[in-house]
Amino acid sequence: MRDPIRDDAVRDHAIQDLVIRDITPPDTTDITGLLAEAMGEGPVARWLMPDARVRRESAPAYFEIFAEHAVRYGEVYTSVAAAGGELSGVALWFPMTAPVPPPQDYDARLKDAAGAAFDRARELDAALETHHPMVAHHYLAFLAVHPDRQCHGIGSALLNRHHDRLDAAGLPAYLEANDPRNRELYLRHGYRDRGVIRLPDGGPEIWPMWREPAS
After folding, report:
1. Measured between alpha carbons, how far apart are the two ends of the chain, in Å?
2. What Å distances lie between residue 130 and 64, 66, 125, 208, CA to CA?
3. Interatomic CA distance for residues 161 and 166, integer angstroms
4. pTM of this structure
5. What's the rounded mean pLDDT across residues 20-27?
6. Any idea where the domains of the chain sit in the sequence?
7. Do the beta carbons of residue 172 and residue 211 sit within 8 Å?
8. Could you say which of 69, 147, 170, 173 would form a disulfide bridge with 211 (CB–CB 3.0 to 4.6 Å)?
9. CB pairs under 8 A, 24+ apart, for 203-206?
10. Among 136, 130, 120, 116, which Cα is nearest to 197's?
11. In this structure, are strands 137-145 and 173-177 parallel, antiparallel, or unpaired?
């Protein structure tokens, strides 16, 4: 269920009515809710769980696994409105410059969350793992913007915040785009395709993408 963002606005600067920040303290409740709402009807989600009711019921537990894992081992950025403080976007990054352990009790929690879709969820994991690069990089596991705030440059602002750090450190970035519109956003931010992943049983295409640091 990677790459939830649908942000068509071309922005090279942070949006003035937003505050982009690392989360602290590490509370994942709002993040999990945003991921579920933004990604629950995406192409990979529909392939994993064709039944809409099952998707709605299972999505929070599924995304909670990764939100908690990012808080422990990754870097989490959120965007909130300067007035009101509502969460509008989130980016979950993992610094793959050293080994990162799998989420705690992953198989058991995934089975509880995915239910009958467990085998497909593991197929997805295996497909993504096969294409994941081994060299040092930062991995954008999830980028999500609330459906009511999409196409306002929030995704670009979240990307720019971390890209500035990566460029300063000379580190590349990697992600998987699972929607043509998302892929276009990442292309505008310097990512390039590294082939394509085709999920079985008529599943959607996923584009592994790589970004070299800007000089």
Report:
1. 31
2. 24, 19, 9, 11
3. 9
4. 0.87
5. 51
6. 18-211
7. yes
8. 173
9. 203/44, 203/47, 204/43, 204/44, 204/47, 204/178, 204/179, 205/178, 206/2, 206/44, 206/127, 206/128, 206/176, 206/177, 206/178
10. 130
11. parallel
**pLDDT tens digits, one per residue of 67-120:** 999 999 999 998 886 656 778 899 999 999 999 999 999 999 999 999 999 999
Rounded Cα distance, 172 and 152, in Å? 26
DSSP H or E run through 62: helix 52-73
d(CA 165, CA 136): 15
Question: What's the mean pLDDT in 168-172?
Answer: 97
> Please, which residues have CB within 8 angstroms of residue 198's CB and are 6 or more apart in sequence?
205, 206
CATH of domain 18-211: 3.40.630.30
